[in-house]
């Protein structure tokens, strides 16, 4: 038996690449990102039924708000608010259910211990999921934006494309950084993760102003809502895409751009600290139990 075991271990070790040839550092991080993004990109072509559902249902919510605003004879810019909000909903739902809850679901399926024990960094794993989710959510958001604009006859006017693109990218970066923070929080909350995810969904809809400008809030409530990247990003994008968008803006676009940059740095740094704590605790205790303390 010992001979067979030694022979098997020798074959296994021989199949491994030499330590000097194993990827480390930035190369390992990039390979981890690509490896985790790949399944979500391929999934776009395999579950076309889900793609139809993810587009049709948000369009129904968009249509409801459009009909309410038109019944109240609201300015036409409010229709544009609704179309943009419906498109950005796809990203928020992906952050909440595809990012924040991801580590919890990986734990339930038995994959999380493999992530912890592997040399791949957790930040790279979550970033790969984020990039793959951005593409799938971007397709849905684009379809909602195009169909909504065509059906409800909304005209967008963009004069500063570079600034708009920068605001959009920073909004996604801060939003997915927040998703990484939530991923650790939800995992620490164990079985309550599902409840936390459900609890976070509707308040963000309210505070981020997906279907109306946050300027309508009392001043201090609007300031508090500005800590949500989606609220700042939506406010800036509306100012840059709608004819009268600047009238309904809460803050100047340049200031919102700076705040989004700060939120991105804050959430990514916080995510790194929390994921490092999670990984250290898991390796020290050699287990992932219901209470990781």
Q: What features would you describe in this structure?
A:
The chain is an all-alpha fold and 293 residues long. The chain has one domain. 76% of the residues lie in helices and 0% in strands. The chain has twelve helices and no strands. Helix 3 crosses helix 7, helix 4 (77-100) packs antiparallel against helix 9 and helix 8 (161-188) packs antiparallel against helix 11. The two termini are 41 Å apart. The model is unreliable at 1-16 (pLDDT under 50).
Main sheet properties = none
Number of strands: 0
Low-confidence stretches: 1-16
Order of helices and strands: HHHHHHHHHHHH
Overall mean pLDDT score?
77
Give the number of domains: 1
Shape: globular
The rounded distance between the terminal residues' Cα atoms is 41 Å
**Rg, alpha carbons:** 22 Å
Count every helix, treating DSSP H or I runs of 4 or more residues as helices.
12
Portion in strands: under 5%
Structural class: mainly alpha
What fraction, in percent, of the residue positions are helical? Answer: over 70%
């Amino acid at each position: 038996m010992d001979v067979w075991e030694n022979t098997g271990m020798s074959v296994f070790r021989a199949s491994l690449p030499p330590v000097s040839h194993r990827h480390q550092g930035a190369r390992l991080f990039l390979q981890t990102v690509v490896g985790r993004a790949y399944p979500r990109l391929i999934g776009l072509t395999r579950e076309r039924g889900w793609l139809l559902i993810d587009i049709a249902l948000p369009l129904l919510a968009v249509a409801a708000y459009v009909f309410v605003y038109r019944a109240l004879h609201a300015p036409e810019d409010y229709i544009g608010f609704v179309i943009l909000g419906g498109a950005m909903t796809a990203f928020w739902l992906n952050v909440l259910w595809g990012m924040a809850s991801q580590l919890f679901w990986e734990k339930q399926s038995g994959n999380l211990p493999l992530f912890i024990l592997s040399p791949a960094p957790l930040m790279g794993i979550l970033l790969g999921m984020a990039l793959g989710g951005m593409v799938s959510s971007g397709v849905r958001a684009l379809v909602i934006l195009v169909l909504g604009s065509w059906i409800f006859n909304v005209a967008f006017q963009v004069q500063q494309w570079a600034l708009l693109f920068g605001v959009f990218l920073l909004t996604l970066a801060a939003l997915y950084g927040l998703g990484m923070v939530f991923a650790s929080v939800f995992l620490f909350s164990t079985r309550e993760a599902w409840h936390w995810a459900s609890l976070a969904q509707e308040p963000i809809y309210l505070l981020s102003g997906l279907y109306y400008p946050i300027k309508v809030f009392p001043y201090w409530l609007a300031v508090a809502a500005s800590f949500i990247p989606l609220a700042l990003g939506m406010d800036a994008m509306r100012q840059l895409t709608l004819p009268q968008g600047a009238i309904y803006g809460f803050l100047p676009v340049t200031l919102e751009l700076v705040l989004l940059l700060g939120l991105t740095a804050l959430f990514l740094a916080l995510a790194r600290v929390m994921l490092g704590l999670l990984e250290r605790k898991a390796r020290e205790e050699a287990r992932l139990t219901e209470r990781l303390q």
